Amino acid sequence: MHEQTPKLIIQGGNPLRGEIRISGAKNAALPVLCAALLTGDDIRISNVPRLMDITTMISLLKEIGVSVHDNGPSEFVLCAANLAHLTASYDMVKTMRAAILVLGPLLARAGEAYISLPGGCAIGLRPVDQHIKGLEAMGAEITIEHGYIHAVAKQLHGARIVMDIVTVTGTENLMMAATLAHGTTVIENAAREPEIIDLANCLIAMGARIHGAGSDIITIEGVPVLRGAEHAVMPDRIETGTFLAAACATGGDIRLSETDPHLLDAVLDKLTESGASIETGARWINLEMQHRPKPVTLRTAPYPAFPTDMQAQFMSLNCIADGTAVITETIFENRLMHVQELKRMNADIRVEGNTAIIRGIPGLDGAHVMATDLRASASLVIAGLVAQGETVIDRIYHLDRGYEAIEKKLSLLGASIQRAGTH
């Protein structure tokens, strides 16, 4: 007999009200966990969210030989004194692209790495050639054999690396590799995401010499060894944005704590444009919405512009807006897969290439829908929260990859939402 796959059941129509705490950022925690490979000392990492991808990364690091102590509820101590097995197998990498992040640190510290080519993402190609090109510039010999990247380097050396395209994981991988390289590395056209700054802060605490993280030119002066350190992972800006969009769509009034409003300028601007009133402090954001949202036209682009990871959530907001909005997706080629599912809920959306034209209607209808990727799942949750009647969302394992206990947090805010079926 098959186990039931988990699904979410939502009764729409409740405005979100109350306060919740934002979790640590998955996309910052994953590279920071990999940074433990760069030293034989203990690394203590706190504010780590409990998510599928984190569990997978911890399993991968253990396979490589890292000892991991789970101090609960969100803290781990890692020690990579003995790297027994310099491989990231296909079984690990196929479910999580971020596994590629062990390539740079393993190569820099152990002189060799054997990493399966990544799978694990439906939203686009996301090639790893930039990682390979950069490591080759630093003196690595890299071959692709039987679906694996085999990288060897007795000693990496500093290099000037110009990225052809802006890549977050590429920038992170090369930055980690460069910390132990001989000489100075300059990464040009580097990604500017806050998660890169967070990783740089962790590496600097370990003794790395890094300048310019958060700008498009990062300079890393290699050092002979890195040491143990403590690091608290930054708050999750996409989780923050998702809850704000949900409150905005439902006409709610919420306060989010343990977050950082400065990470979300482009998103807060668009929420204000939709008619929400927003107040912020050093570690909190309040959002209140008293009427139907105004349509918000937007175009995704690399940080600090509007994030592709918030596009789907704003699509749902625009579905019930008073007017027509245009959303253009410039980052990933198949990132409009949620459109078909939103149409099942009676949304009026027309897609032309990488652009969606959304004509707002007064209300959506609850329906049975299916999640296609992580952020698409979040857009369906928002649509379900505003729809009349019951919405059932299938395949929510996508959601569990990036949102910690989303149904518990939404319930705390007064949503009628429950999980059915088991893993």
Task: Write structural notes for this entry.
- The chain is α/β, with parallel strands linked by helices.
- Helix content is 31%, strand content 25%.
- It has helices at 26-35, 52-64, 90-93, 103-110, 129-137, 168-179, 194-205, 237-250, 265-273, 311-319, 338-344, 374-386, 397-402, 406-412, and strands at residues 7-11, 17-21, 42-46, 67-70, 76-79, 87-88, 112-116, 141-145, 148-152, 160-162, 184-188, 209-211, 217-221, 229-232, 253-257, 277-280, 284-288, 298-299, 324-328, 348-352, 355-359, 368-370, 390-394, 416-420.
- The strands form six sheets. The protein has a four-stranded mixed beta sheet.
- Strand 8 (141-145) and strand 9 form a beta hairpin.
Overall 3D form: elongated
| CA radius of gyration | 22 Å
Beta strand count: 24
Residue stretches low in confidence (pLDDT < 50, at least 5 long) are 120-125
Descriptive keywords:
423 residues, alpha/beta, 4-stranded mixed β-sheet, 31% helix, 25% strand
In brief:
This protein is of the alpha/beta class. It is 31% helix and 25% strand.
Write the layout of secondary structure elements.
Elements: E1 7-11, E2 17-21, H1 26-35, E3 42-46, H2 52-64, E4 67-70, E5 76-79, E6 87-88, H3 90-93, H4 103-110, E7 112-116, H5 129-137, E8 141-145, E9 148-152, E10 160-162, H6 168-179, E11 184-188, H7 194-205, E12 209-211, E13 217-221, E14 229-232, H8 237-250, E15 253-257, H9 265-273, E16 277-280, E17 284-288, E18 298-299, H10 311-319, E19 324-328, H11 338-344, E20 348-352, E21 355-359, E22 368-370, H12 374-386, E23 390-394, H13 397-402, H14 406-412, E24 416-420
Parallel strand pairs: 2-15, 3-14, 6-7, 10-11, 18-19, 22-23
Antiparallel strand pairs: 1-23, 1-24, 3-5, 4-5, 7-9, 8-9, 11-13, 12-13, 15-17, 16-17, 19-21, 20-21
Helix pairs in contact: 1-2, 1-7, 4-6, 5-6, 6-7, 8-10, 8-12, 10-12
